[in-house]
Amino acid sequence: MVARVVPVAPFDLVVFGATGDLARRKLLPALYHRLHDGQMPIEARVIGAARAQMDAEGFRRLAAEALDEFVAPADLDPDSRRRFLATLDYVPLDVTKDDDWQALADTLGAPDPERPRAFYLSVAPRFFGVIAERIAAAGLAGAHGRIVVEKPFGHDLPSARALNQSLARHFDEGRIYRIDHYLGKETVQNLMALRFANALFEPLWNAHHVDHVQITVAETVGVGGRGPYYDGVGAMRDMVQNHLLQLLCLTAMEPPARLRPDDVRDEKLKVLRALAPVDAARDVVRGQYGAGPGVASYADDVGDADTRTESFVALRAHVENWRWSGVPFYLRTGKRLRARMSEIAVAFKDPPHSIFAGAGGRAGANVLAIRLQPDEGITLSMTVKDPGPGGMRLTPAELDMTFAEQLGGGGLRMPDAYERLVMDVIRGDQTLFMRGDEVEAAWRWVDPIIAAWEERGERPALYDPGSSGPEDALMLMHRDGRRWREISA
Ligand SMILES: NC(=O)C1=CN([C@@H]2O[C@H](COP(=O)(O)OP(=O)(O)OC[C@H]3O[C@@H](n4cnc5c(N)ncnc54)[C@H](OP(=O)(O)O)[C@@H]3O)[C@@H](O)[C@H]2O)C=CC1
Ligand SMILES: O=C1O[C@H](COP(=O)(O)O)[C@@H](O)[C@H](O)[C@H]1O
Q1: Which residue, of 4, 252, 345, 411, has the greatest Cβ tally within 10 A?
Q2: Within a 10 A sphere around the Cβ of 451, how many other Cβ atoms?
Q3: 150 lines ligand 1 (CB under 6 A)
């Protein structure tokens, strides 16, 4: 089933780093899907740029291989594939060399106010400043051109601030798109629909009714070939500072007045600013996967027996405001865990009085779980009567809504986050992109935790690959009389 789409205007998109992993695995397939679904017009141009010497034909071959590898065969339509490849062009360009930029200027031509123009920086962050500067100096962006930057956006508050400042010299905030691909995930956007398009939940969405919130992003993969990057970063910077905090913000924020980018981002920023400082020793657990049968340890994966980088984090946070006073937000993320599962679970308080004291069976708390992946959907755990004539016995049951089945008769392809985000750049919609002050607020909260770890210099607790993480993470909740939800696919 093809999702309903509104075509965007013909555009020019320059992808710096077009031969790299992100471009091949995510960006080119995302653009292909948008063309196939009728959203990207064939008059659009995607101009790849990297140092590799090749012409447009060479880049089309590289892109064709990327589509064949990263688009599901059932979705790869030969006609759409051909039409997509025809939109591609290529300019060999070392972004640090002045002389190379003229060829890009010639290929792009003068900016046309009717034709959106965007520059996607799919390169290492050390190039962000120089690219922004050269684009501005050559007048390539015109008055409306947009710049898209990837993560990591800094590695602490000072570096994020410096990056913001270097971009701000050449682009105003309304033209800077900082990617957090979790915001492009269908179910993350659905969280806003669930909260603000239904009258049912909002009256319950507060400390009077919510016992706690659990946010889990569990992966089965290890660091793979990304060891050199990951070992200098760790799970806190790689996942918590951005993706998990963004999920927390969307769960905890007040209803924005409208669905305008800054209305939403203002509300998220207020949540980040309301986060209470955490005690790194008491409220945060860091772990590292050890070796398992047929599985190398994290230390082996990164080739450093003494590495102190964490591949797992669990923590307890509090949003100190009227709505959430006293409600713990438990966050956890890690690699090489039992299953790939990402969800936000809102656990409600028990009923104030039970009339079922003498009844048999088992009552469970109401939990609203928003499943981000896999099998995007929403479940609501309830307590119902166990069917049958055996008297009043209680049993847990679930209202289960899997989006692909409910909304697409089982045949709906869930678009990848990058499909939505790249089209939003072209449409000039910043709602799902992080504003500079949000990124800085997130680092301001995360930095002291990392500083405390560095001061202690301890190794993270080892956990078994395929497990739910280190024992201490279980204790973090047991101490509060609560339990993590199962990590299961
Ligand atoms: N890969 C992923 O899954 C994710 C990546 N990111 C971020 O996306 C960005 C790109 O990552 P990724 O694709 O993995 O990186 P790669 O190392 O795979 O690709 C880097 C790209 O940059 C180009 N490049 C390097 N130096 C220059 C230069 N001086 N001038 C012009 N082009 C240059 C390379 O081509 P050449 O050598 O030919 O110049 C290549 O196309 C990074 O910021 C990364 O953190 C974010 C999230 C996920
Ligand atoms: O940003 C990142 O995200 C991926 C997980 O993304 P998902 O869409 O597959 O859930 C993570 O593996 C990677 O380490 C991190 O940089």
Answers
A1: 252
A2: 12
A3: yes
Nearest ligand to residue 123 Cα: 1
Residue 170 forms part of a structural domain: no
- Please indicate, yes or no, whether residues 473 and 410 belong to a single structural domain of this protein: yes
Report whether 334 contacts 287 (CB < 8 A): yes
Would you say residue 12 has pLDDT above 90?
Answer: yes
Give me the residue label for tokens 């024992």.
Answer: 471
Q: Is residue 158 part of a domain?
A: no
Q: Pick the atom of ligand 1 nearest to 19's CA.
A: 41
CB of 41 shorter than 6 A to ligand 1 = no
**Do 274 and 383 fall into the same domain?**
yes
β-strands 117-121, 88-92 pairing: unpaired
List the domain range (segments joined by +) for residue 107. 12-150
Say whether 243 is catalytic: yes
- Whole-prediction pTM: 0.95
ipTM: 0.98
Catalytic one of 243, 318, 353, 478:
243
- Whether 268 has a binding-site annotation, put simply, is no
- Do residues 154 and 338 make contact, with C-beta atoms less than 8 angstroms apart? no
Residues 381 and 298 in one domain: yes
194 and 263 fall within a common domain? yes
Q: CA 464, 469, 472, 477 torsion: positive or negative?
A: negative
Beta-carbon contacts of 282 under 8 Å, excluding residues fewer than 6 positions away, are: none
For a mutational test of ligand 1's pocket, the pick from 90, 98, 119, 122, i.e. the residue with the most ligand atoms closer than 8 A to its C-beta, is 122
Q: In the structure, what pLDDT confidence band is assigned to residue 2 with cuts at 50, 70 and 90?
A: very low
219 lines ligand 2 (CB under 6 A): yes
Q: What is the CATH number of the domain that holds 51?
A: 3.40.50.720
Is 394 among the annotated ligand-binding positions? no
For ligand 2, mutation pick of 149, 187, 237, 239 (most atoms within 8 Å of CB): 239
* Position 83 in a domain: yes
Task: Indicate whether 6 belongs to any domain.
Answer: no
Same domain for 355 and 268: yes
Across-strand partners of 127?
A: none
Please tell me the residue having the least CA distance from ligand 1 atom 34: 17
Q: Does 101 share its domain with 25?
A: yes
Distance 219 CA to ligand 2 centre (A): 8
- In DSSP notation, 310-326 reads -SEEEEEEEB-STTTTT
8 A C-beta contact, residue 471 and residue 285: no
Overall number of domains in the chain: 2
Q: Which ligand is in closest contact with the Cα of 376? A: 2
How many angstroms separate the CA atoms of 271 and 256, rounded? Answer: 12
pLDDT tens readout for residues 425-451:
999 999 999 999 999 999 999 999 999
Which ligand has its closest atom nearest to the C-alpha of 70? 1
